[in-house]
């Protein structure tokens, strides 16, 4: 457990992806009395109306996320407090945010315009005149 935490703390910012309260609540369902451990930021989610009571340890919390967890009767821990409470990671659930959810990931992969590519092109604006003509739709000659 400690080795994994150590490794994740030394990851790049891209690999310390944030996690929303909605995702956290769904993953912690049925795991009462356990502490969720996320090496990253916990962000608030407006879609989650009923915040369950949970104990969460993370690098950072947004102000609204912290307020929502505390209001529900839960607690927000830091890693030094977690180390004192359970040094070997007993009673914890190790979670991580989705690293491929970043907007930039849409532009990686097979070049846009190549057959069977779902990669998004880098476009100045999203409008009628920008990358919407030949090769993009059937009515304009052909579609790749």
Layout of secondary structure:
Layout: H1 2-9, E1 19-20, H2 21-27, E2 35-43, E3 55-61, H3 63-71, E4 75-77, H4 79-85, E5 92-95
Parallel strand pairs: 1-2, 2-3, 2-5, 3-4
Tell me the β content. 15-25%
Oligomeric description of these chains: single chain
- What order do the helices and strands follow? HEHEEHEHE
What is the 3D form? elongated
What is the total tally of β strands? 5
**In percent, how helical is the residue content?**
10-25%
Would you tell me the structural class of the helices and strands?
Answer: alpha/beta
Q: Specify the biggest β-sheet.
A: 5 strands, parallel
Compute the average pLDDT: 90
Instruction: Pick out the low-confidence regions.
Output: none
Radius of gyration: 21 Å
Distance between the amino and carboxyl termini: 48 Å
Quickly count the helices. 4
What would you say this structure looks like, in words?
With 144 residues, the protein is an alpha/beta fold. It has 4 helices and 5 strands. The chain has helices at 2-9, 21-27, 63-71, 79-85, and strands at residues 19-20, 35-43, 55-61, 75-77, 92-95. Strands 1, 2, 3, 4 and 5 form a 5-stranded parallel β-sheet that branches. Helix 2 (21-27) links the parallel strand 1 (19-20) and strand 2 (35-43). The protein is elongated. The protein starts with a helix and ends in a 49-residue tail after the last strand. The mean pLDDT is 90.
């Amino acid at each position: 457990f400690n080795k994994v935490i150590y490794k994740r703390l030394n990851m790049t910012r891209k690999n310390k992806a944030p996690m929303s309260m909605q995702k956290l609540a769904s993953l912690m369902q049925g795991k009462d009395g356990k502490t969720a451990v996320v090496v990253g930021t916990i962000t608030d989610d407006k879609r989650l109306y009923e915040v369950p009571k949970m104990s969460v340890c993370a690098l950072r919390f947004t102000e609204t996320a912290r307020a929502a967890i505390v209001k529900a009767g839960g607690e927000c821990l830091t890693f030094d407090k977690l180390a004192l409470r359970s040094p070997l990671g007993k009673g914890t659930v190790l979670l991580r945010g989705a690293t491929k959810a970043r907007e930039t990931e849409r532009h990686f992969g097979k070049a846009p315009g190549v057959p069977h590519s779902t990669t998004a092109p880098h476009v100045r604006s999203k409008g009628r005149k920008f990358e919407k003509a030949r090769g993009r739709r059937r009515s304009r000659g052909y579609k790749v």
